[in-house]
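Objective 1b: paired records.
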Amino acid sequence: MKSILVIISIILIARKVTASNAVVSNPQDIEDLKNVAKLKALFADIQPIIWNVIHDLPSDKRYDKYRKDLELFLNLINHKSGKVCFEKYFEDLTVLASILTGYVKEDASDEANKVLNLFVIYGHNDFLNKQWKILHKLDLVKLKKNIKHLDKNDAKFILLTETC
């Protein structure tokens, strides 16, 4: 449970950390593309976990808030916002982290603990490990700078500026 809190905190901090000013000198480097694609795949991985958690929540009214929060999150990640995809992914992960942070608090309710346990049962720890491996490689500020230096006709530019 503590590892979940640590990873959630890292996600929340990741957007606030300033990146180095260096720009990747080799625009042929496709590492960013791979990581953005992996980040996109994370949302395919988290959806079944959330659906299983929602499905297994007791029908008791005490769980309505959790059910609603998770359903709203699923709607959020599937909503076409028109934002650049990789930025939307970071924003959506931040929302998920803020939802789950409430479940990890020491004074969390029994219901929150039950929801958190369901997340663990359905593989959320594996999801967090995959997420961490991707996020520690991505530098959002640096990626934005790199995009500015790409040729607008470059396939990488097109993929990195895809909107969701």
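Objective 1b, second protein:
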Amino acid sequence: MRTSKFISKKRRCSGCLVSIYCSEKCQRTAWRNGHRKWCQVLRCTVGPWGSSDIRNSLQVIAGFEITQISGMAKDVETRVREAQQKFPAFSDKLVLMVDLTVYSPKMYVLPVHMLEQFPGEDPIWPEIADEIRARSDSPPKGYMFSVVKVHLGKSKFTLFSPSTALRMAFEGQYFSDDETNNSIDEDEIDDSKSLGDQDLDCDSDPLDNKC
């Protein structure tokens, strides 16, 4: 069966493995409109190896995350107060963990530096915390952001909030027809050197892109 010309031109960002573009020009425009900043955050939402299982389930995981947090609002408030008393030096650096690896799901509030790191030595959570804090004057509801612990095979991974990442990474990446029709300028050429892309007709997932 032949693949349509439109489908064959689609591209996936090889950095986060989440964003999909209709063309290289659209990818470059999105990169300049914000994806440059949120690419790493999205990568930390799909796990250290960019599992297709997690990528394909992001919206479902985000739905569970939102449902659990809203449904246990009183419990979250209590745990935030307890964490603020237990970790007074880090009261402005608290993170809410939604543990979906157990039934029923459990909530924890702990300082950001206590989160499990992905394989490797990159201090991903402090970097994400800096990004989130730059967009907000004070932690909402007593914590900076939420994370979700999930199963991937026999392993467990703590992922950055899918609901937050999907909302913040794509809000403002829409652009007018005029922008897409503009010719590529020198800045776009420079930016393209930093772009990671992957043709969608390639089935393999790159393993060397880390948060």
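The first strand starts at residue 11 and ends at 12. The chain is about 45% helix and 15% strand.
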